Amino acid sequence: MPFAMPGHPFEEMGPPTWKPAPRVRQQYPSSRIPSNTKKQPTYTKKRLKETPYFAVFEPFEIIYCQKCKDLVPTDSIAIGTHLQGPCYAMSPGPAVEKAALQARALLDTPDDKNMIRRRGELYARASRSDMILPEVAWLRPATSGYFCLLCGQPRRNRTVLREHMRRVHDGEKDMWGTTLVQTFRSAGAEFLTFRVRRRG
Ligand SMILES: [Zn+2]
Ligand SMILES: [Zn+2]
Q1: Ligand 1 is a single-atom ion; what residues have CB below 5 A from it?
Q2: pTM, 2 dp
Q3: What pairs with residue 72 in β-bridges?
């Protein structure tokens, strides 16, 4: 019989009879503490996957505009719309269509016109305990933020994290920690926040 209780935050720590002592509950479960010796995801290859206007940010498999660094849906229509916007101000026509198809071909993922669903997937990826990236030099600088000790989700704002604890974790109050975060924006609004560490 397996020891793990599926979905329980302490499932990796022992048999179902194991109960965390109150002191331990204030800490990040040791099996999920991000370790620097673990292989960290990198994005050094991002330059290999780019077009004149867009590039791929490998850790999240997202396409971003090389000018404004906004994330765009992996959908050639949305990419074409961005090409005609303030960043590149291209006129509608074959050049836009060609560039949009090129950019779309950077990623082998389904169209994500539904950015809300896509956001859920990206949140899940950003929540992995080993997903702590080196600070990304070309995004807005890292700032201090918060993350949930139960599921790993990072947020810039403590009120927003509290709301997450209330909604997802039944109002659990103490299970959060501090972390450095950076954020991808989309259409000018904050879209995806992820944990980073300082370089060097
Ligand atoms: Zn742009
Ligand atoms: Zn959580």
Answers
A1: 65, 67-68, 87
A2: 0.71
A3: 63
